[in-house]
Structure formats: C-alpha cells, structure tokens
Amino acid sequence: MTTSEHALASPSTAPLRIVGDVTVGFPASRTGYGQATYGNTQPQTERATWIAVWADGGVTAYAGKVEYGQNIRTGLAIEVADELRVGLDDVEVVLGDTDRVPWDMGTFGSQSTARVGWQLRKAAATAREAIMALASDRLDLPVSDLEASAGEVRPKADPSRGISYADLLAGQSIEREIAERPTVFGPSEFTLMGRAQRQRVDALDRVTGRAVYSQDVLPQGVLYASILRPPAYGARPTRIDLSAAERMPGVVRVVDEGDLIAVLGESDEAAALGARAAVIDWQLREGQPSRFDMPALLVASGVDGYAVQEAGDLDEGFRAASSVIESTYYIPYIAPAPMEPRAAVAVWEGDRLTVWAGTQRPFGIRQELAAAFGIEESRVRVIAPEIGGGFGAKSPYGLAIEAARLAKVAGQSVRVAFTRVEETMWSNFRPAAIVRIKSGFDAQGRITAWQSDAYHSGERVMIGRRGADTPYDVPHVRSLVYRSDSPLPSGSYRSLGAAVNHFAREAHMDEIAEAAGLDPVELRLRNLSHPRFRRVLETAASDFGWSGSRLGEGRGAGIALGIDVGSYVATAVELSVTGRDVRVHRVQASLDCGLVVNPEGALNQMEGSIVMGLGGTLFEASDFEDGRLLNAGFARYRVPRIVDTPRIDVRFVGDDTDPSTGAGEPGLVPLSAAVTGAVWGATGVRHRELPVTRHL
Amino acid sequence: MAITLNVNGARREAAHGERNLLSFLRFDLGLTGTKYGCGEGLCGACTVLVDGQALRSCMTTVGAVAGGEVTTIEGLSPGTSVEDLHPVQRAFVEEQAMQCGYCIPGFIMGAVGLLNRRPDASAGEIREALAEHMCRCGTYQRIAAAVERAASGGGAS
Ligand code: FES
Ligand code: FES
After folding, report:
1. pTM for the whole thing?
2. What is the CATH number of domain A215-283+342-417?
3. Which of A321, A341, A680, B130 is 20 to 30 A from A279 via CA?
4. Where do the DSSP E strands lie in A272-317?
5. Are strands A303-311 and A433-441 parallel, antiparallel or unpaired?
6. A225, A416 in Cβ contact below 8 A?
7. How far is the CA of A108 from the centre of ligand 2 (A)?
8. Which residues contact ligand 2 via a Cβ below 6 A?
C-alpha cells in the first residue's frame, strides 16, 4: 500500500485523536484459542490511538491486523468512513506495524471485522460525536438539530450552512476515549456498509505491482542469505566445511552457529552459488513414520480425549435406535502453500532492531525477537507488509529470528527468503486426522445416538476441537477429540480442524440418509431445529435446485452444512466423474455471517475458500517417508487451477441486525462432504478418505 | 561479460548473460512487481512480456532475451489512476479480481500476452492460457471474468 503523509506522521500531531483499549485484539478470552495456541504475548501498553482525524479532514485508522488477502483494509475503511460520514477515499488504514498500531494477538480466527471492526466503528462514532460537539458550539445549535454528511456538519434545517470537519478542527488538539456506547448508525442509516463497492481501496497498488510484500523488501546494501537447511526432518550435520563457500565470488561471509548455517552474499546468486559450494554431511534420523503409517499412528498415539460435546446416555440412545452404522474417515496432511514464500529482512541500528516479516502476528514475533536477543520489546519493531497469502500458516515465522541473528553477526542488514520447497517443508501442515463415527437412528431417520472419536495430529488441541460438535438434535451424544503424534510439523490452516470434522460428520449424515432411505436434505432437516442452520440449508437447496443426489450419466449432486467462526453455511455441489477425473460444474452456497459490511469482499472470500476446499478434497495430500517430504514443489503437489474452478454462486442470508461474523473460513467446512456426497451420487461409491482423486 | 537489454523502454545493463531474468528484474533493477512463486516455471507469478509474448522470467536468463523488449507489470501503464491503467489491469480492478494479490501481476501479464495474440480470445481459450498460473487464494472466477471483460473490450495493446 502506498503510504500517504498522514500514515507516516505521528498521530499525536493530529487535531483529533480517538484512543482506547487495545485488548479487543484478543481473538478470545486469555485462556481461549489464541492463548492456547500462541503463548502469552501481552500488550506493552493498554491504550493506543485507533483513529486520527487530520487538519485537512483526512482520517487515518490504525489496526494491529495484517492484510493477507482477506481485504480487511477495505472492510475497515468502509466501517470508519460510514460512521464518520466521510468518503471512502478520505480514510487510510494503517496495519501491522508494531510501532504504529494498537497491540493485537494476531490475524486469525476471522476476528478482524468482528472485533477490531467494531472497535473502529465505535472509535469513528466517537470522533463524529466530538466533531458534532464542535459544530454545535460554532453554530449555536443543539447537536440534535445537526447532521454529519460527506465530511461536513450541517444544520438539518439549513444544509447549505454546513461546516467542514477540517474547518471545525482547525487549531484543535482533542483526545477522546472511545465512548462506551457511542451512537453508531443502524442498518437503515448505512451509506457504505452492506453496499457494493466499486473497488478495493488497495486495488491500484495490486494491479500495478506497487504493493510491497515481504519478498519485495530490499533496503540498500542488504545481504542475501542462503541458509543450509537439513534435507529431511530430524537430520543433523556431522561435518560442516564452509571454506570453499567462503572463497566464492560475491560471498561476504559464512556463518556456522550450529543450528544456523548460512552463506551471506552480495546478491541472491552469489549466496546461492556459495551455498552450493558448502560441504555438509547430514545424519538422518532413522525410523520415522511414513504417510502409510498415519491412520494407525493417529489412533495408537491418541491421548487426552476431550469431550467437545456430551449429553444423555449413549447406551440408551443406541438401544432406542432401529439401525446403527459405523464409519471411519481419514484426512491426510495438506500444505497451505501460499503463493508468497516467507521472507524477512532485519536491520540493526545499535540495539534497535527492525524486522520486516509477512507474519500474521507481528506483535508475537516482536516478543520472540526481544526474548531471543534479551532486549526490551520497545527496542524491536516488526513491520508486516502485504502478505501473499497465509491461510493461518504464517503465524510462526522463524525467518524473522534467523534474519536478525545473521544481521547481528554481519553488522549489516540481511534478507532471508524461502524457496518454494523450503516454504512447504519448513512451514506447517494442516494436521492429518482420523474420525470414527457410530450413529443410531430410528425408522424415520431421527438420530438417537451419536458417538464420535476424532484423532488430530499435533500438540495444539484447539485445532482438532474446532467444529467437532454436531449441530443436529441428538439426545444422546458424545464427541471426543484426541491429540495424536505428528511426524510432520502441523499447525493452523484456514478453519483449523473444522473442515476435517465437518467432512466426517456431514459425510456420515449422507450415510444415514442412504441407510434410512431418505434424501440427504430431508434427513438433515428432520434432525435440525436451529433456525439459522435450517435457513442456510433450505436456501442453498432451493437456489441450487436440489433434486436428489443421483443425476444420471455420471453426474451427481451433494449438499452439506456447517458452522465456523460463528457463521452458518450450507453448500451444494454438482459434478461428474469420468474415469479418474472429477469435474465440478457448479457450487451454490448460502452464508449467514450476520451483517455483511463489504459484500464483494465477503463474496471473494467465500469463492476463494470454496476453491481451496476443492483442492484438499480432490487432489491435495502431503507425502513423506523417512523424514523426507516427497512432494514439496508444485510439480508434485497439485493445487486447483483456473480450469478446475466451477461456477460459484453465493447468497448471504444473514440479518443486518446480527453482529458480523467471519466470512473467510466457513466456505471450506461443508465443501468436502458436499463433494463426496456428489461423487456417491455419480458413482455409487462412498469416499471416506481424501483426496478423492487418489481413490478413484 | 556485461550485457545490455531493454526493459520497459529503457536500456539496462546486467553483469553477465547468465543472470536469471527474474532475479535481475527484482534485485538488480528493483522491479519487484514481478513475483517469485516457485522458480520452476509452474506458477506464473514471474510472468513478463518479451516482444509482447508472455514468458516465465524465472526460467530464463538475461542473455536469452537480450535482443528483445522486456515489459514488466511496472511498464504496462503509468498506473497513476484507474483511468490510465492498461485495459487488462482496469478489468482486474473492476471485477475485484484479487485477494492477497501476489499472483495478480503474473496473471495480468499472462492475459496481456494472450490478448496480444488473440484479441478476441474466447472464455475457453482464456482458461486454457491461464491454466499455467496459480492463485492459491482461489480468485479464479473473478480473474476469468476480468480477462473476458478485457477481451471483449479490446484488451490488446
Ligand atoms: S516463479 Fe516462475 S513460474 Fe513460478
Ligand atoms: S490473490 Fe492470492 S494468490 Fe492470487
């Protein structure tokens, strides 16, 4: 994003500043998901400036979130502009720079609009009230006789006597605390929120190549690092000889700190050639599990079975059933594979450290850097520029510390950048999982008992628990989630484990429908009383023109529902299967995410999450053996392409009066089961293992 | 041996002909609008035009294109406002065909290359031509719509 003078100026010089608490940047309570997942990053100061209104009437909004494709810059600008009654072009949003924005836990869990958007709306409304008060004095009219519009305050009785914000703020220096309950506008008064916008606020930078991503940060005189990383997980160097590397042209120095071996060059080329001249013998760690060991390993190593949902008495539920079925679902690891591999640049000025890193949690990385070098957090600045995709994976960002360590040794700024293969191998994968479901139901297809045991790989238990509860009306239910060993580094991924848990549950609902001789939509409705779930399902089915799973001639339809980050979603899919080829023709989704601030942005997110979901459902699986990753590059890891993309239609069915919930992740959760349901409709074969095309 | 080539209408010098074109553009000239995505010719993020034809810059050297005219995303239009964008760029803005945006310069250059060859490319031809590009954010439906819009609106230049 091209930054203006305002964005670079200190907000303390603005005539009107709105300050407030920073802890809204928590995605959940201090003991919740964010805390469990990312440790104890804490704000250094409790308050910060959220909005500055400048002498020329321009507005800057500050948020600790980062932009990695969710288009929050536009969404937040819309909220601020609408509440402040200024033009969208008058608002600039500053994100992700720890020296300039309110502390924030990190950009994940679709919290940006829900929490920070709301905070900024309240801040903007507070600013409007402060400006109205100035106008009231100036015009000698009560505030109730005034209205704000297009950057002016006008007497309702005589709009021609409007005074501009710039005029009202001339010579002022006002600081206001965000009001507890400012008068925010209701849906009927919105001028920007919920309306289609002509374009994103950062569109021009993105189509001209001016947007700066972490790969593009290249300060004068920066050294390029090539880090010699192990060829396999767990491999250790037994002999390191960097003498030839050191003599290569353009190599400035070599670094061997045991856990960090690097060649620093004047150019990327010099560093890469130098690294090639390095001689390292690696000792591999023997006896590591392979991809084929995963299903058994997940179950055998599962510990800490946690009851995500428990009610009634399972024995009683199964006794009341006329049929009982049991199935197991397996989902392998998949790679987030954002288009931009990570990169970081570190610059030391004395004991002050600045690091550019495309991370989803700049404040967390700041804390890690401060701890690594034993300095105060106030001495560290982390700047997250534009991020070329993250999908949850770019929260950990070890490159930031590597770059800072190397820059310290070199006494010069250093850039560390992942290659594609490094990005895949040294990032983290969506956990592999196995889910066993046993269900009992009566002759009418009403579910009497539901027993689910899910085993997700990895230490971070919140990943596997997300979405593991059933929304259906089941009197006797127990859903346990276990934590299992993870041979690969596993971590966050769009919707965490929710897509995995939803796949198992919704695929199982299809099996109940088949066993009970009912249509999949009818079966679901018979077991579903929650009105928001019913509405998304009924809307998706009718928009799609649902007429059953089997469409004949190798064609099938599938449908599934779900909930993620507080948003209700249902999706129907039509596809055909020819040999080992699955062609998805169309996807119809309905989403209830409450108030939709930026419909085009939410739509874009839904479309994207559906395409991403198709990848994991149809093609993607990360293969490994003896600690080696076998398909790290795109040559062997198939992701969806434009020719794999179906027609996608989305309808928003939420109420404007419900608070905004996330739109970036829910699209993923019903998709896999909708696809496998459609594959069953087309072929008569149930797929309980993903990705589908490997099992055709 | 130093070698000269034309980039966005200006003569530029590279230290030697074996220099990777993508690295040369990004690191030596600072033209960072051309992106690195895979370095293996598989994602299209690094696409530039050479004599109007789309080319993966990560897969070629400066020497191999020295006789031609290289155009990067920065050289496609002045880009100071939506009005003075290249028609393909403008179509991407109008369709909001971008999420993180990292793949977008590559897609735009690939689409311009296609429309230079086939100004009235059909929807099917557009998808075929862009199948070598990746957008992990899954913006494909909008990208296809944008290029179709530019094609019917005379996207070639
Ligand atoms: S970077 Fe050249 S094709 Fe991917
Ligand atoms: S917009 Fe993110 S990769 Fe295409």
Report:
1. 0.95
2. 3.30.365.10
3. A341
4. 279-283, 303-311
5. unpaired
6. yes
7. 18
8. A 69, 339, 389; B 98-104, 135-137, 139
